[in-house]
Design goal:
homodimer, alpha+beta, 3-stranded antiparallel sheet, DNA-binding
Chain lengths: ~110, ~110
Amino acid sequence: MARSNPPFMSGVPELLLLRLLAQREMYGYELVRSVRVATRESIALGEGVIYPVLHSLEKSGSLSASRKSVGGRSRVYYALTRRGQARLEELQGEWQRIQDGVRSALEEPLHAAT
Amino acid sequence: MARSNPPFMSGVPELLLLRLLAQREMYGYELVRSVRVATRESIALGEGVIYPVLHSLEKSGSLSASRKSVGGRSRVYYALTRRGQARLEELQGEWQRIQDGVRSALEEPLHAAT
DNA sequence: CTTGAATGCCTATTTGTTCGAGGTATAGTG
DNA sequence: CACTATACCTCGAACAAATAGGCATTCAAG
């Protein structure tokens, strides 16, 4: 039943994946765990979220994919491209802006006389 | 051309409106300006975003609406209900969770040996 | 007295992304 | 042989934000 647009999640999967892949290249299944760990269990993304985002980032040139065989297992490793680095910086800026705005609004005391 | 899903905005309009209305009751047109001010110009929401959210919050019982005439102008004032207060707290918690998770992920140094 | 800006409300449509549920296949363990 | 973990994938539903419009009123300027 796909309750789809949980608050505050739009753009987050893309940002997290780009950011994790800026540290080292990884494969999809690995990223599922990495997201949980990196966000300290605050955010968990299913494979149904990860793979489509990975594919769209590859198509847009932000990631490069390479199939590798590791211990009898076939994996698709994704690495950040120069374009992906730029996209990451763009998204970080956006995140900062939104986050600052929301913080300002939330900080405002409830019964301000100002 | 409705570039629709800008990153990181899902849930934000609802959160901001509930939060502003927790301070005092306001009308739609006023909220358009209030959002800009409260977020220090970081976030600007058009009327096309504000009004639909207001209506849906009223329908769900988070806001109560009352038509008032002020200086020859007819305005629809919205006030936070008890249910709206609860919804605000719920959203704030969600925001905190996502924000913490993203912060954790972004903080991680790029070349961690850990 | 007419024009335009500002106020004030509203809706239809586009867009595209997240999500759960499902499906496939292989490796390794009991 | 069954079962779990690994590893990849796709589909459809749900849904919310944004733009671009439209309507009506008030008020100031020319």
